[in-house]
Amino acid sequence: MFDLLLRRARLVDDTVTDIAISAGKIAALGDISGPAVKSVDLHGEHYVSAGWIDSHVHCYPNSPIYHDQPDSVGIATGVTTVIDAGSTGADDIDDFYTLTRQATTEVYALLNISRVGLIAQNELANLNNIDASAVRDAVQRHPDFIVGLKARMSSSVVGDNGITPLERAKAIQKENGDLPLMVHIGNNPPNLDEIADLLTSGDIITHCYNGKPNRILTPGGELRASVARALRRGVRLDVGHGSASFIFTVAKRAIALGILPQTISSDIYCRNRIDGPVRSLANVMSKFLAIGLSLPQVIACVTDHAAEGLRLKQKGRLAVGYDADLTIFDLKRQPVLFTDAEHESLQAEQLITPLAAIRAGHGYMTEQGSAEHAFDL
Ligand SMILES: [Zn+2]
What we know:
Distance between the termini: 18 Å
Largest sheet: 7 strands, parallel
Keywords: Metal-binding, Zinc
Number of domains: 2
GO molecular function, one term: hydrolase activity, acting on carbon-nitrogen (but not peptide) bonds
Strand content: 25-35%
Bound molecules: zinc ion
InterPro entries: Amidohydro-rel, Deacetylase_Atu3266-like, EF_0837-like, Metal-dep_hydrolase_composite, Metal_Hydrolase
CATH topology of the largest domain: TIM Barrel
Strand order of the largest sheet: 6-7-8-9-10-11-12
CATH class of the largest domain: Alpha Beta
CATH superfamily of the largest domain: Metal-dependent hydrolases
Radius of gyration: 20 Å
Number of strands: 15
Protein name: Dihydroorotase
């Protein structure tokens, strides 16, 4: 007896399958006839993917500047797992951990290498905030919560310290089992070339399509040589849309050059969720459909690529034995006007619309899904 049976789910390759769930795990896929406590027919109409993973959010409710509730950026919008990107450092990580145990959304953290985290914009302007032993203790206290490190490398954050915080971050990374390191880029100094040259396989550049001086393209619209070298070494690109870090012109040009993101993420928090231009992960994903990625490419960026980049086991794939985290969504044909971080707009015709999410085997309808009454979980 299965706990839940999703019948006739449409996958992004347009095949249709049944998905059975038991004890919070995916129990079977294919043509399934066994009995289930609950059975939901999706009629081959509604898409199902592995649960969406947002690789860059801010959801520490006690953050003075970039706060939100995990479930507001997560399960309410069809996102089953969120990775908070450096809202907290060693000083606040315990509080963050405790608060997020009540969330339905699975929450992980990239620990800010600054022990004070994002209590202000300039957390790396004082090198005394980079305390390697405090990082090590925090990682040891929360081995299943801290999945990587975060260093924000832009002028307003590092002050007069140039590239030094990143050199410290790389040393700290080595001391902590080579955890993935996410590096924020934006205004210089330090220059992006200096940053890119320090990064190694598995490191993640976030805000990869920003329009600031540290954009990945040269003034002539070619990929910077330093970034090309970094990508060849296995450095990964993450979108991290945010309030000020994504523009259509850079994204379109990069994608035309074949420079695709490994992960599509939102950099969402309450302000850019409510007022835009982020709104939701689905909204950011839809922008990538509008600039030319296919639906399977977009979904891969929020499922298996995200799980791989942050080494999340048992997530990101529809496979037997994996966590029963799933997202049910429609691809709606409707006119929609998207806005980037510099108020440029883009007319599009499709919107990815989450209807429900299943997290550890339990179903949660989104507002949209409840309103449509297409099915009930
Ligand atoms: Zn961020």
